[in-house]
Amino acid sequence: MARLLSKPLQGSLNLLILKTLSRGPLHGYAITNHIQMVSDDVLQVEEGSLYPALHRMEQEGWISAEWALSDNNRRVRFYKLTPKGKRQLALEEDGWKQITAAVSKVLKFA
Amino acid sequence: MRDKPFKDASDEIAWHFEQRVQQYMREGMSEAEARTAARKQMGNLTALTEETAETSIFIWFETFKREILLALRMLRRAPTVAAVAILSLGLGIGANTVVFTLMKQVVLDYLPVPQPEQLVILHNQDPEFGHEWSNGMHSSFSYPMYRDLNAATPRIFDGILAFRAIDVTLSGRESTENLTGGMVSGNFFQVLRVAPWRGRLLTAADDQAPGANPVAVLGYGLWKRSFGGDPGLVGQTVVVNQHPFVVVGIAPPQFYGIDVSRRADLFVPLSMKADVVPDTRPLSDRMDHWASLIGRLKPGVSQQQAAAALTVIYPQFLNQDAAVLKLSATGRQKYLHKRLEITEGGQGYASLRDDLSNPLKILMAMVGIVLLITIVNVANLLIARGVARQREMAIRLSVGAGKAALMRQLLIESLMLAMLGGCLGIAVAYSGTPALLHALSFDLSSASISARPDWHVMLVAATVTFAAGLIFGLLPAWQSARTDVGAALKTQGSFGHTGGGTNWLRRALVVGQVALSLVLLTSAILFTRSLQNLENINVGFNTANLLKFNVSGLQAGYSQARIKSFGEELRQKLAALPGVEMAGIATVPLLQDTDEGGEVTVEGSAGLKEGRRSYDDNSVSPDFFTAMQIPLLAGRQFTPSDSANVHIVNETFVKRFLPGKNPIGTHFGFGDGDNVKLDQTIIGVVADSQHSTIRSPKIPFVYSPYLAEPHLSSLYFYVRLRSNQPNAASAIRALIHQMDAGLPVNDMDSMTEVIDESLFVERSLGYLSIGFALLATLLAVVGLYGVMSYSVTSRYRELGIRMAVGATPERVLAMVLRESAYLGMGGALCGIPIVLATAGSIRAALYGVQPNNPVIWCSAVALLIAIALLAGFIPAWNAARIDPHSALRAE
After folding, report:
1. Which of B53, B236, B299, B781: disulfide with B9, CB 3.0–4.6 Å?
2. Does B98 fall in a domain?
3. How many folded domains does chain A comprise?
4. Residue B481 and residue B576 share a domain
5. DSSP secondary structure letter of residue A40
6. Is the pTM of this model over 0.80?
7. pLDDT tens digits, residue range B230-256?
8. How far apart are CA B643 and CA B641, in angstroms?
């Protein structure tokens, strides 16, 4: 099966993460799993992109992070959407819709 | 700081790795296979950890940098505001740093010795009998009294030291140097706990038999300066006041003795007094008071306990004094009740501290007020800027910027301003401190005072800067955080105003500024008036065309007879010089803060209260009064053949002791008590003149014939010139050189220069206060102008309407001017209570003018209102020229 990696979709990685977190706090591994599962394995987020992105978004104030303990007493970092992140998500969703609409118009026309 | 992001990222990624391995194992892989697959999927874990962690750090720095850059860009966008703010802050902070640099060294610093807080100064109370040779401000003790006290108090003190500053002529290898030295007790360095830099310091063994130990310790500065830091100097001989001394050691670099304003460069034992001091009294003389005492309290002994113990010990030694004095029974009783007082001595002595501490405190208050005005001014500017930026702020708020972020941004901008101002201030301090010292005509070569602000001062300056930034930053930040987004965005154009509240705040700030300016303005007027009064004091003799100098016969090795014959010969030769009218000699210099005196008992004036019998004296030559042009009111002047018991007194003496009587021929005696012999005779009366300083109160004065004086050392010559004699000084030097080529001529100056010098503190205070008042007023004008022009701009439409319905330009002009005058008046009214409250603290620094004089503060108020009108004039003029048509069409 052809796999679209997140690399070409760098711009949309923020959108994917923000959207995923809008359902509730998750840790990094769960975010990759969620994106992969919901996209029927089409989108796979590489760890090499995910973590720097998460930390950058945290500094921007879109998401906040918190340490919690797992069942086997390990430190796990959970990410949560902030109000600022919610506004950012709305902006990015609009942007994405405009781009896809534009791209499909181009495709139909050809 | 750097480790935490790494630890976090590493934990997080390790956990992610474990999760992935477990999932692969659930999907059927063996553990080894799962690990390989996970590693393949995730790539280099270390690299990933680092990249993740660095993202956090990098972004943190980026945000910080971005905010600073943004702040700088904002400041650049309003360059005038930034320049005015930075400049005025720089001046304010700089002035404070300069004054504090001096204040710290002169008023606050302790001696550079271990545990200076244990040191206490011993004070002797009046009545004092016998000879007193003091430095002016602190009491002195006899050498036997010092030895007794030191020996009797081992349980209170870790030793008491004795010190006496002396003038020293050091005949070195090549040249002769005049410097300040110290005669010190043997335990001087031990009590201060100073360690030698080279060789050894003095010990108790050096201070035993009179004249037995010609040893000296050199100050580090002198050793470096005059001997090139030669380590071989220890053990060699130097010539001090014509006597050979062996250098036994060098004192450490920081050590300057016990007076920061008079650095001692050389130390010799007290026991060598006869070799270094032009005085023939023996060390064992209980009635010769000349040593200053400082004790080091034993650990655990409080000042009160020491004082109590001394009260018990002291009378037994006073008793020995009394035996020498042969006092009457009552006089003896009184004498034995004298107390020994002690005060904190950690700062040592400093004649400078006594002179400058009050003026420096006043100066510090002034520059503090200037800084406060500056801060208010900058706050005002920034609020005005905040109003101009209201739309910008509203836009940023509406696109989701938090209020906290906006306030932080504004605070960063203010702190950047403060920092730039602080840097400028420190530059001002570095160049300004030497300038201030120069303005105070302060001779650094003889004091141990540095013109460089040290790191303590810098720390204070930095703190002040930061605090200033916070103060003037918080007001505008708070103001802009209250921005109403909707209202600000709806307002179009530049004429709208939403800042009613802002305007209120700005007016309050301006009123405060004017109030503080009033304080400075009033003090400037007061100090100027005081200076004028001092400069116009009639000193009682003609100061014009009067030259003075002194020669020290004893330093040159002259006998008493030789000093007198030399004095008379020089006096006559001087009078014969072309261009010279007359020359006189005194043994105590005039107007140089020096006095000598005691108490008298005058025939028929027994009823006078105690404390009203003191007098000052001076021994003078024949023709002295003619040369000084002090009028002779009765009797005659001295002649060369006068004996020691004939005297000339001044008017105040006659008024106090002999009111309504003929003073000529009256007998009196020196001293106070029942058996004073009335063996002195008044032969003349002269008019009053100022003696010790130009502002000392009038005191009974007794002049004696110097030729009958048994202990002469320096002679002070006063030469009355015909007008305009520019070459007189060199002619006099040539004459003395011809008489004795080896005799140095000291301190040749005109009398007007002496008076100028004696007024240097008052003059500096006068000029500096004018400078600060001008600066403060200028800042107040800027503030007023800013508020008024904003007020006019924001009422553009209203004023236009008024004019459209018939208000004449004159009425509009008057209306705006009135508003400006009200602000000025309001400020002045708020300032008056401050002026009155601070009046007491400057009273001591004033001469002939009262600080709460209503005429003075009323004129300051009038001046400020006039200035307020001036500041309001341009805005008012603009208001009067508003064109009603365009005003109504605007918006």
Report:
1. B53
2. no
3. 1
4. no
5. T
6. no
7. 888 899 999 888 889 999 999 998 888
8. 7
